[in-house]
Amino acid sequence: LVLAGDGGSVDLEARTRVAQALVEKGTALIDLNRDEDAIVCLERVVTQYAGTGEVDLSERVARALRVKAAALLKLGRDAEALAAFDDLLTRFGDAVEPDLRESVATALGARSALLKRAGRDAEAAAAAKSVLEQFGDGPPLGPVKLRARVLLVCGNAERDLENAPQALLRYGELAARYGDEPAPEVQKIVASGLAQKAILLAKLDRLEEAVEAREKLVARFGESKDTVLRGLVARALHNNAIALRKLERPEDAIAVLN
């Protein structure tokens, strides 16, 4: 019934409910692998509610652009995902509200990674530097989710700039500060940080430490029912089995997969 509401209603609360329902529907469609349908749903949020100037609606528009970009990435449409993140930054890059700042941090970080993946190294480096210029002084004041997100994207930016020691410090601080937070959204950020830390350690040929980082991820989130966390745990177990074989610990590798 919420989705049947009038998206153009003058009642802000009603419009916010409709926008939120559309974002949630788009997210659910992605979970069902109906990515094209999700994109259509999320574009409706942007079309109907962008430019209102209302903070509550702007937060939903920013979220819709983030989720749309995620759907496009699943489909391998990196250029369109980059355009979605650029749209978000154009609309909300100067926002001060915590939820919008988190979306901006996410978009800046994703932009750096996508440009690097496209071989546009100079632009990727500039994007990573922009992350650190805006957020590199440490976790900002605000909700835990914003502070955790900033540590993650700054860690990724340091990684993209090949500042491995600083990246590892950021990932470590993220887990130390927020590893016990109960909020699912914060747990996903912490788990992503541990996964990225393990990837970087493996790249540095520090396999024992990479295994340890993944073991922490599994220990903290192995019982979660969340789809994203379950995927991160599964990848951590698989990658640890590979690493343990390289370390000539075949029995441990077998135990990990049992």
Describe the structure.
This protein is an all-alpha fold. It has 12 helices and no strands. It has helices at residues 12-31, 35-49, 55-74, 78-92, 98-117, 121-135, 144-160, 164-178, 184-203, 207-221, 227-246, 250-257. Helix 1 (12-31) runs parallel beside helix 3 (55-74). The termini are far apart.
Largest sheet: none
Order of secondary-structure elements: HHHHHHHHHHHH
The end-to-end span amounts to 45 Å
Uncertain runs are 4-9
Using the CA coordinates, give the radius of gyration: 19 Å
Secondary-structure-based class equals mainly alpha
DSSP summary, beta strand count: 0
Q: How much β-strand is present in the residues?
A: under 5%
Pick out its properties.
78% helix, mainly alpha, 258 residues, single chain, globular
In short:
The chain has 258 residues and is mainly alpha-helical.
List the helices and strands and how they pair.
Layout: H1 12-31, H2 35-49, H3 55-74, H4 78-92, H5 98-117, H6 121-135, H7 144-160, H8 164-178, H9 184-203, H10 207-221, H11 227-246, H12 250-257
Helix pairs in contact: 1-2, 1-3, 2-3, 3-4, 3-5, 4-5, 5-6, 5-7, 6-7, 7-8, 7-9, 8-9, 9-10, 9-11, 10-11, 11-12
